[in-house]
Amino acid sequence: MSNLDQALAQAIERYRQARPVSERIHAEAMRALPGGNTRSVLFFPPFPPAMARGDGCWLWDADGHRYLDALGEFTAGLYGHSEPAIRAAITEALAGGLSLSSHTAREGALALELQRRFPSMELLRFTNSGTEANLMALATATAHTGRRKVLVFKGGYHGGVLAFAGGGSPVNVPADWIVARYNDLDDVQARVAPHRGELAAILVEPLLGSGGCIPGDPAFLLGLRALADETGALLILDEVMTSRLSFGGRQALLGLRPDLTTLGKYFGGGLSFGAFGGRADLLQRFDPRASGALQHAGTFNNNVLTMAAGMAGLTQVLTAGRLQALNDRGDALRERLNALLASRGVALQFTGLGSLMTMHPVAGAIRSADDLAAADDRVKALVFFELLARGVFMARRGFVALSLPFGEAECDLLASTLDEVVTHCRAVLPGRG
Ligand SMILES: Cc1ncc(COP(=O)(O)O)c(C=O)c1O
């Protein structure tokens, strides 16, 4: 057993011993849920901590440990765990009753608020998740073009049935995928060339989120816009994660106007949410007054709690100024963490944009999923468990998403804790060579 394996085994054993309640909760859940799990991304061996409650940007597990929440519910927790305006809006909506069986005043109001932020969403519709939003955007594209092929990117993630880590997944929805390398227009051209007349859509994240917070080059993303125009395909920009990078998402920062945009995560104020929207001529096809209108159903598409919480978040909390400050804080934190890791001489780095970042056990430049091929996951695991032992919670895969309550003091705490971990583990961490 190598020193790294030994250090990791010890860290995991310490983790297990300190969490008997979480272990018991997990064992009980295993009687009905495969592996005790109903959301794949959350599991890591031997068992994940069972969270008992949250407040601001802090979490407590069922064993009584307190953690600084640097994960922010994979970006859906942008407002933190207890934003007063959102709690008040949910309470107010509850008083009016749930499941009202018809339109309400809420969905139009929230849609207008989103349209104001994303002018490319001339019309939009709500779903219950980002996955559904992407499925509906793809369905819109295939219905509009009468074509079947969809260009996606290795390392891309658009939902549990639209996942392209390693190129694809056996549980992906059946579709005619063309999978190209991210940030590589030559690869795109080569793969698309035989199918230009068959391409229905290009589905792309402006930053590979789950794939490791790898930013798309502006020239690459604008090149995809041009390719869509040349081929008659629709450009679908998946801003489920990146919408938080500015008031109008990354598309506003890039001056990029997609045909369709998909949203999700925090726009529901912490409740289930998704939306797809874009060019009016495309969305108009869902107008139920028209004969032959396209159908888009969903019992909970306009559920009152999501509509209320989403609206409170956007109108009372998430000003352009607060978003900018959050992303500035993220940029500064990432630079600080990278400077720290470089000064310690370890082959670890954070990539990302604004308040989104991922830690990678790799020294060189990272522009696509292929650049992560040499990453040693044991290194990530060790740092993860050592941070957890010191009260900092990030995703097991190294993902960090700051929330609004995560301020300067919390950035200091994350940086000093990472420094402590790197110092503690220095002997077994790979050097920059
Ligand atoms: C870019 C992106 N698209 C889509 C999704 C799927 O959203 P949901 O989990 O709400 O279905 C995610 C979720 O992480 C995502 O990061």
What's the SSE blueprint?
Layout (H helix, E strand, L loop, with lengths): L2 H15 L2 H10 L21 E5 L2 E4 L4 E4 L14 H12 L9 H13 L5 E5 L2 H16 L3 E5 L22 E5 L4 H8 L6 E6 L2 E2 L5 E2 L2 H14 L2 E5 L10 H6 L5 E5 L9 E5 L1 H4 L20 H14 L2 H25 L4 E5 L2 E5 L16 H13 L2 E2 L5 E3 L6 H18 L8
Parallel strand pairs: 3-15, 5-6, 5-7, 7-10, 10-11
Antiparallel strand pairs: 1-2, 2-3, 4-12, 8-9, 11-12, 13-14, 14-16
The protein binds pyridoxal-5'-phosphate.
Description of the structure:
It is a single chain. A 7-stranded mixed beta sheet has the order 4-12-11-10-7-5-6, with helices on both faces. Strands 1-2-3-15 form a 4-stranded mixed beta sheet. The protein has 13 helices and 16 strands. The chain has helices at 3-17, 20-29, 84-95, 105-117, 130-145, 185-192, 218-231, 249-254, 280-283, 304-317, 320-344, 377-389, 408-425; strands at residues 51-55, 58-61, 66-69, 123-127, 149-153, 176-180, 199-204, 207-208, 214-215, 234-238, 260-264, 274-278, 349-353, 356-360, 392-393, 399-401. It is of the alpha/beta class. It has 2 domains: 3-78 and 320-428, Aspartate Aminotransferase, domain 1 (Alpha-Beta Complex); 84-317, Type I PLP-dependent aspartate aminotransferase-like (Major domain) (Aspartate Aminotransferase, domain 2, 3-Layer(aba) Sandwich), CATH 3.40.640.10. Residues 74, 129-131, 134, 157-159, 205, 209-210, 238, 240-241, 264, 274 line the site of pyridoxal-5'-phosphate.
